[in-house]
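Entry:
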Amino acid sequence: MTFLPLFLSDVGGSEIVLILVVILMFFGSKSIPGIARSMGKAVHQIKQASQDVQNEIKKSTGDVKADFDLQNVMRETVGIIEEPIKEEAVKMDQIIQTPTEFSRPFGIANPSAPAHLPETDVTSLDQPAEETTPQTADQKDLAKE
């Protein structure tokens, strides 16, 4: 089955012949070739203009793609962002590795020396703990008597 344009899909062969006879009678046999030639040129110019527009669109999108290389833009942006971060990381590592007076525990003069802890009197759990509540002046007088 062949594809026909919409206006010819319902037109039969005899109807086309009738239309051609009416055109021949209306325009005459001498002017029909000139009309057909000018219609052919017009159709050719329309097709050429549409082809030129399509080529121009394709060329401009190709230029835009070449100008806007997304991968390259992303690589440059990552490089711009990573460089200062890496520099700051190196500075922070140097600061962390450099010993200062604040890098050792409080109260210890030399961090390589063991810490000296005061000895405490540890009472056994079996012995009852003595009361060590603070006494008032009246309680101290009574304890002396």
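The CA atoms of residues 19 and 25 lie 10 Å apart.
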